Amino acid sequence: MSVGTSSAPGGRDVRRPPGDLAELGIDPDELPDGLVVADERGRVICFNAAAERITATRAADALGQRLEKALPLEDLEGRRWWQLTDPYGGLAIRVRQPERNLLLPGGREVLVSAKYVRGEPTGPVRRLVVTLRDTEARRRTERSHAELIATVAHELRSPLTSVKGFTATLLAKWERFTDDQKRLMLETVDADADRVTRLIAELLDISRIDSGRLEVRRQPVDIGAAVGRHIQAYVAAGQPADRFLLRIEQPLPMLWADPDKIDQVLSNLLENAVRHGEGTVTIDITATASPREGEDTGTSVTVSDEGPGIPEESMNRVFTRFWRGSKRGGTGLGLYIVKGIVEAHGGTITVGRAPGGGARFRFTLPVAAPAYLS
């Protein structure tokens, strides 16, 4: 890699793309990461726009300066990084510095890696190429993981405390309770065990979604019958039958999807409508254009209610982790998982406002028929 410089009026060096980048027609300012290059004397000859943004140092002030002055870095123990590593006078066999967290003046953390360019394997350093990355994206990921751990710990604590309390009480005082009291305690333990099982299932789903390993086992799915089963379950649990309106447009294409995962999607969307919405919950199932290129037909399911709906400013956060509506409850992971399942099928999901003013969720799946049926 070669780096050229030119002089502006007054003798100040200005940025020029390193030779390899110039040959590709790429300017250093087009790179997403900070790029700082020092010559064989340790003078900065390249300081791109991303480096300016990350370090809050103007390129005009950095160019021509000694590297340790233009880019003063310290490790997490407060030691001056360039004095510690001594790239120009250190080990002659060293060719790079792996990425690590270092500190800029003021304590701002950056991710730094370096490449030593030598004319021959153990020769002097001709160029020192340093890349800089902002740590904000990594911090957001770490915060998300911390929030997930805190949420899981909180959600597990309540049912496990209940299970422990009731089982300990039954074991210690079994003979003192009537059969009805024992049944009530055991039913509570059973319900709390189901709650823990659901949370663990959600965590496994999130892990698979985040790693791209969510498996879809496609079978023919009667989406209308699947919705009907969920409605019947709500009615059996005490919801009035006239609260639900199911409208199916015929004919529908045969849908090939994972029946268990589609049930999970329907369960989450209907539960949201029943718990957070008001009035009639309307489910429309229609044939529509496929969301996947190369396929003509898809199936669309719309779930809407007549409640207060979702505030406009929250629309873009609905499918993120830990989003909850106005009523507290649940882990806030359900809609994140719903989006992951729909997208694993090659589909799309949107949220908006229903004609009656409530929330409206609409997901569209490609029919995804096997090739031998085409």
Characterization of the model:
- This protein has ten helices and 14 strands.
- Strands 4-3-7-6-5 form a five-stranded antiparallel sheet. It has a five-stranded mixed sheet with strand order 9-11-12-14-13. A two-stranded antiparallel sheet has the order 1-2.
- Helix 6 runs antiparallel to helix 7.
- The chain is elongated.
- The N terminus is likely disordered.
Task: Compile the SSE list and pairings.
Layout (H helix, E strand, L loop, with lengths): L5 E2 L5 E2 L4 H5 L10 E5 L5 E4 L1 H7 L3 H4 L4 H4 L10 H5 L10 E8 L5 E10 L6 E10 L1 H38 L5 H33 L7 E3 L1 H14 L7 E5 L6 E3 L1 H18 L4 E9 L7 E8 L29 H11 L3 E6 L5 E8 L8
Parallel strand pairs: 9-11
Antiparallel strand pairs: 1-2, 3-4, 3-7, 5-6, 6-7, 8-10, 11-12, 12-14, 13-14
Helix pairs in contact: 6-7, 7-10, 8-9, 9-10
**Taking Cα atoms only, what radius of gyration do you get, to the nearest Å?**
30 Å
Order of helices and strands: EEHEEHHHHEEEHHEHEEHEEHEE
Shape, please? elongated
Assign the structural class, choosing from mainly alpha, mainly beta, alpha/beta, alpha+beta, or little secondary structure.
alpha+beta
Question: Can you summarize this structure?
Answer:
The protein is α+β, with helices and mostly antiparallel strands and 374 residues long.
Q: Characteristics of this structure?
A:
374 residues; five-stranded antiparallel β-sheet; five-stranded mixed β-sheet; 14 strands; 22% strand
